[in-house]
Amino acid sequence: MSGITYVRGDATVPSVKGVKIVAHVCNDIGGWGKGFVLALSRRWPEPEAAYRAWHRDRASNDFALGAVQLVQVERYVRVANMIGQRGTRTGSKGVPVRYEAIDTALTRLAGHAADLGASVHMPRIGCGLAGGKWSRVEPLITERLVKRGIPVTVYDHGD
To answer: What are the tens digits of pLDDT across the range 9-20?
Structure first.
C-alpha cells in the first residue's frame, strides 16, 4: 500500500483519470476569501456559492465543525468543503485549526470517495491560514483515506 503522493502544482488541476475530489478546509463562520479558496473561486464559482448558502442556512442543516459538503464542478470533479477550523484568526484561544474536526471530516470524505471510486487531491489542508502543523494532519489523512485504499495527492504550490 502506497502512502500520500506529493507533487508540485495546483490542486485545482488534478491530472489523473477518473473521478476526483479536491478537498480543502473551511472555517465555521462563513468566511471565504483568503488562502486556497481563492484558487478554487478563480476556477469554479460553485464551491463558494454552495459554502455561503450552507452557512446561511446552517440553522436547518449540518453546517458545523467536521461537516463535509461535496460540490460537483465538472463531470468528474467535485470539491469537498470541509469545516475544520474555528474562526479565522490566531488569538488567545490559539490557532484556528481543529484537528478533531479535520479527522471527522476526513472520515466522512473517505465514505464519499469510496462511494464514487474517487481519488482525493488537496493542498496541505489546515496548515496555511488555519495555522496547523502538517506533522499532525498527515497521519489523519493516512489513517482515514490511505488505509482505506483511497489515492491521495498533496500539492505544494510553486517551483
So the answer is: 999 999 899 999
